[in-house]
Specification:
This protein has 53 helices and no strands. The two termini are 36 Å apart. Among the domains are: 247-407, Leucine-rich Repeat Variant (Alpha Horseshoe), CATH 1.25.10; 409-579; 608-685; 990-1082. It is globular, with a radius of gyration of 36 Å. The chain is mainly alpha-helical.
């Protein structure tokens, strides 16, 4: 037992372990580490009786939770029952008075005990009913609150995948809990809420008063609502939905719950609660529950009449709120109500709405509410998407409405789309006049959601809505034309630009999303042309605006930037509908009517070609004007790449004089964005996109040399520098980084043998030495080396078999020798560079890329590596030795902490052991064993791709050992000498493989089986020992279980011989699947 002195010390250490002082925290962790041992379990239990310190109580509860989870089988059934009963009594006595964070941990422990023992002990399955019987009491609200919290914690645990149970076991427990207990818990929450409602109604007061009874009811109501939410959010089918999503999927309520939705007053209960409760937080929770209730699966209802009655109750409830606006003065409640409006249409069809008695009134009230919400600028930004989503879903259902029913949507939808647009223009005015107002244009996700919904409303009656848009657009555009040619106050100019931004976004969304409308295709295209003409007139005004307002810093003018983003959005949308592969009209014999209208309004001839010329010109202009605004450069490059990636749009673009100018004049003197350090990634994208356009048409080597000529000046300057001190200058560094980024874009764009050969012939003999000099001088500069190594990684990548030289050509070998020289020079110097602050950026990133480069070279199949050993060339051994030592210098924990580094390391291991095992085994024993140790630890990685790579590496290694050992070759002797230094290595690996197969959810059994058979063949005696150990561990002293596990092992090796023939391997793989199922059934 623990003395009073020890207890005081324990409490002090617990306060320190959760304190702010790091040194005290580490010391407390060290001293309290002993409490992780099972023998200290009684001391932890004693803490609850002896201590009132919340930190001590929390520590004890958390440690017991870990013990129970990790050592479940070490606790007897009696001890588990005693612990559960003790915790329930403790919570009943002190559950309300102890701090929330302590009670939460205790509740979690009760839930964990219940879940882990659910299938083992009937008392656990009876627990929810016992809680209801002894805790939920109308006369004792505080005890009822504790009982509801216990039930909630059990649901949360049942709905959470714990490390103790596999996915299959978790689902088995969760399904049993769902079928046996969940409905009863849900009914308990409903009964509690009914009691609260009766109590409130009897008082004749709202719950927000200060009366003690009201406060108690408020607390009880909150817990009951939270329990109801947990019941409805339960993962009924075991698919683990994405909880981060705002949207709610269909809730798969079990059929046994049908009476609660069809025959009871469940919906009326929640609408009555909403109208009775005075606490906004509780009203919001009620609406959250209603959102879930309206999301129940359609097949839950007996028939159409029951589903109609259910929907009618929702319509009546929402109509009541819309009439009185009760509770909607609270922003959170308002947002949740908007969410309910959107959700109700997601789960019910328009045919079901129109037959409801209150549909017309609900539609009218919803339309009024929607229009008023658009005008409530301070609130609508978060909720406008839900309102638009409601109407877009209603509109989308209109074509499927039965002829005998009337939807009345044509009465409201055009006005709603008009009021939405007007509200955005009013928002623009407000943002321009008041900097403190939050601009919705700053929130791209919300903006995209709105732009996804509004086109369907406008297309519903495109003639009317299109006319509205034109009437709103024309006066603003005219004022902007006058403004850019005459100096007006900058605030007025910004207001016009923000209005034009919204109008451009809306027009772009309408052009890009072509829904069925009341107009014919030709009429819709003509209207598209009418609206697009306004945008095309706007594009050249930007340059005039920048020129005439040169006294202002346009680069910092957010309104102008937003306008540029909207123009780019419009051009992408236009390209998608009328210039791209997916456009319905491109390639047809008839000319889309949009180009006819553009010719009438703007005198634009040449159809697609002329419009595309405007777009390419705008792209070129942006890359000049907005060179220092990386966001605009990024979006502009996205549009450029979008055009170049589509076959038809790229084919059209390649015919333009503007494109030809770009291909011949792409240097930084013409495009200053190339000189900005923030645009390094866009430099690569720029040249990759240019190559797509260059290589699209019939091109020659002369065309390529003309294209790359602007890069020759900087290449020649870098090549001419022989003095390392000169090479270290800042200007040279920046030029080198940009040069590598540019060349990387070009080499990425070389996708076939012909284009790659053009680049190789230009680059390799004349300029590849620049990379060697840079690696020697700038090895300690992460910015230079990252750019250089990434270029080299793409240069040696043999995608599409593009690196293919004639049989008499030495170029493949020369590429590897040059790569080996660069990596060796860099790696040998990097080993001595100390880490100053960020290990990954300063060192690990370069090592990661080096491993990728080496992997790509070894797997490229353009170099015969046997040549190096034959002619005593050290290039292969040097680069292997350098890169592997760099990789092994990184602690294993660090490798696992960085996904890219982890993938590079194990990718290299797989490649090395596939073709170069005889080289790897020549390393010193400590290095070789360190590699094997990392492979052993990596087998259990959750990433199946990586785990399979590691299994392949081990399979190749031990298969090599097996084949060489049969011949008693020097390689076999050398490998045996390595393994003798760690005789437990193979046994440990085989044990780990069996542990994974039996206990874990492994999706790569095929890969595991190949390696397991090799390990069994190499060490049959240990396999027999391991088999007996597994039988004892799994079956214990139960004779029946022992027999079943032994039979599973017999079946595992049935028909399997001690060799590694393909047929034998396949037989073992099939047996292993059966073995896993049999043993897990015993477990």
């Amino acid at each position: 037992m623990m003395s009073q002195e020890d207890l005081v010390k324990f409490e002090s250490l617990c306060r320190s372990i959760y304190g702010q002082v790091e040194s005290e925290r580490k010391e407390a962790e060290r001293q309290l580490h002993m409490f992780q041992k099972l023998e200290n379990y009684p001391k932890l239990i004693m803490i609850f009786d002896a201590s009132a310190d919340p930190h001590a109580l929390f520590f004890a509860a958390s440690q017991i939770t870990k013990m129970i989870t990790n050592n479940w089988n070490s606790f007897s059934a009696e001890k588990k029952t005693d612990l559960r009963n003790y915790l329930l009594n403790y919570l009943a006595k002190r559950g309300i008075e102890i701090p929330k964070f302590v009670s939460s941990e205790l509740l979690k422990l009760v839930g964990r005990l219940t879940k882990l023992g659910w299938l083992e002990d009937q008392q656990n399955r009876d627990l929810p009913e016992q809680i209801k019987k002894y805790f939920i009491q109308v006369t004792n609200p505080q005890l009822s609150i504790v009982g509801l919290r216990i039930l909630n914690s059990i649901i949360e645990e049942m709905n959470t995948l714990t490390t103790r149970k596999s996915l299959t076991q978790h689902r088995k427990i969760a399904v049993s809990f769902r079928d046996l207990a969940l409905r009863g818990i849900f009914e308990t929450s409903l009964f509690t809420l009914k009691d609260v409602l009766r109590s409130l109604s009897g008082m004749g007061l709202n719950i927000g008063g200060m009366n003690n009874n009201l406060q108690a009811n408020e607390a009880l109501c909150q817990e009951a609502l939270e329990l109801t939410l947990s019941c409805l959010k339960f993962d009924f089918v075991g698919i683990f939905p994405d909880e981060s999503s705002e949207d709610v999927g269909t809730i798969q309520i079990p059929g046994a719950w049908r009476p609660l939705f069809e025959e009871s007053d469940t919906l009326e209960l929640f609408w009555n609660l909403y109208s009775t409760l005075g606490n906004p937080k509780l009203r919001k929770d009620v609406l959250q529950i209603l959102v879930l209730l309206c999301s129940v699966r359609r097949s839950l209802f007996t028939g159409d009449d029951e589903r109609k009655d259910f929907l009618s109750k929702f319509i009546d409830g929402m109509s009541g709120v819309l009439k009185t606006r009760f509770g909607l003065d609270d922003q959170d409640t308002y947002n949740e109500f908007c969410r309910l409006l959107a959700r109700i249409k997601s789960n019910f069809q328009l045919n079901e709405f129109v037959v409801c008695k209150g549909y017309v009134q609900w539609l009218d009230l919803s339309a009024t509410f929607s229009q008023e919400s658009f005008k409530s600028l301070e609130w609508s930004n978060q909720s406008v998407y839900y309102i638009l989503n409601l109407w877009s879903r209603l509109v989308a259902s209109k074509p499927y409405l039965k002829a005998e029913h009337e939807s009345y949507l044509d009465k409201y939808v055009p006005e709603i789309s008009k009021q939405y647009t007007i509200s955005r223009l009013e928002y623009a005015s407000l943002c321009a006049s008041d900097d403190s107002v939050e601009n919705p244009l700053e929130h791209k996700e919300n903006l995209d959601e709105q732009l996804d919904a509004i086109p369907q409303l406008i297309h519903f009656d495109y003639k009317v809505s299109g006319q509205h848009l034109t009437e709103l657009f024309d006066p603003v555009l005219q004022m902007y034309i006058e403004a850019v040619n005459t100096n007006i106050p900058i605030q007025s100019l910004n207001e016009l630009e923000l209005k034009l931004t919204w109008l451009t976004y809306i027009v772009g969304s309408v052009i890009g999303k072509r829904y069925v409308s009341s107009l014919s295709v030709e009429e819709a295209e003509l209207l598209d042309g009418t609206l697009s003409a306004r945008i095309l007139r706007l594009i050249p005004l930007i340059d005039i605006r920048i020129k005439n307002y040169s006294h202002t810093n346009y680069l910092r003018d957010t309104s102008l930037q937003h306008l540029e983003f909207s123009l780019l959005y419009f051009m992408k949308s236009f390209k998608k509908s009328y210039l791209g592969d997916a456009s319905g009209s491109v390639g047809n014999s008839s000319t889309p009517k949009i180009f006819t209208r553009l010719y009438e309004l703007l005198n634009i001839a040449g159809e697609q070609l002329q419009v595309l010329n405007i777009f390419i010109g705008k792209i070129a202009s942006n890359l000049k004007v907005w060179a220092r605004v990386d966001n605009i450069v990024t979006e502009t490059m996205s549009l450029f790449d979008d055009i170049a990636s589509g076959y038809l749009s790229a084919k059209l673009a390649s015919k333009l004089e503007t494109t030809r100018y770009l291909l011949l004049n792409h240097g930084p003197e013409n495009f200053p964005f190339l000189n900005e350090i923030t645009n390094l990634r866009q430099r690569t994208a720029f040249y990759k996109t240019l190559c797509k356009l260059l290589f699209l048409q019939n091109y020659t080597e002369d065309d390529f040399l003309s294209f790359i000529k602007p890069l020759e000046s900087v290449s020649d300057r870098l090549n001419a520098i022989d003095n390392p001190e000169v090479f270290k200058q800042e200007g040279v560094k920046n030029a080198l980084i940009g040069w590598c980024r540019d060349l990387r874009g070009i080499v990425i764009g070389c996708n076939n043998k012909r284009t790659y050969t053009f680049f190789f012939d230009w680059f390799f003999d004349k300029y590849s030495s620049i990379l060697e000099k840079a690696a020697q001088v700038w090895y300690d500069n992460q910015f230079v080396m990252n750019s250089l190594l990434k270029f080299l990684a793409d240069f040696v990548l043999n995608k599409n078999q593009r690196i293919c030289f004639s049989y008499s050509s030495p170029h493949g070998i020369l590429i590897f020798k040059k790569t080996s020289s660069i990596l060796t020079n860099y790696g040998q110097r990097l080993q001595n560079v100390p880490i100053r602050e960020k290990a990954y950026d300063e060192k690990y990133k370069g090592i990661c890329t080096s491993m990728n480069i080496l992997s790509r070279c070894l797997a490229g199949k353009y170099c015969n590596f046997g040549v190096f050993d034959l002619y005593k060339d050290p290039s292969l051994n040097e680069v292997l030795n350098t890169v592997l030592r760099l990789a092994l210098s990184i602690p294993y924990s660090e490798i696992m902490a960085y996904p890219k580094l982890c993938r590079a390391y194990y990718g290299l291991m797989e490649t090395l052991f596939q073709e170069h095992t005889h080289t790897i085994i020549k390393f010193e024993t400590p290095i070789f064993l360190q590699i094997l140790k990392s492979l052993e630890e990596g087998v259990s990685i959750e990433d199946l791709g990586l785990s399979s790579q590691i299994c392949a590496a081990l399979d190749n290694l031990f298969t090599f050992y097996y084949t060489q050992a049969k011949k008693n070759t020097p390689d076999a002797q050398l490998l045996a000498s390595h393994l003798k230094q760690n005789i437990d290595l193979i046994p440990n690996m085989l044990s780990q493989f069996f542990r994974i197969i039996i206990l874990e959810e492994c999706g790569n059994q095929w890969s595991l089986s190949r390696t397991m058979l090799v390990l069994i063949v190499l060490n049959p005696p240990f396999y027999e020992t391991l088999k007996q150990g597994i039988i004892n561990s799994v079956a214990g002293n139960d004779p029946e279980r022992i027999t079943k596990v032994r039979e599973a092992f017999d079946k595992l090796m049935d028909g399997v011989e001690m060799n590694l023939e393909s047929k034998n391997r396949d037989k073992f793989t099939g047996n292993l699947i059966t073995f896993r199922q049999d043993v897990r059934n015993v477990l």
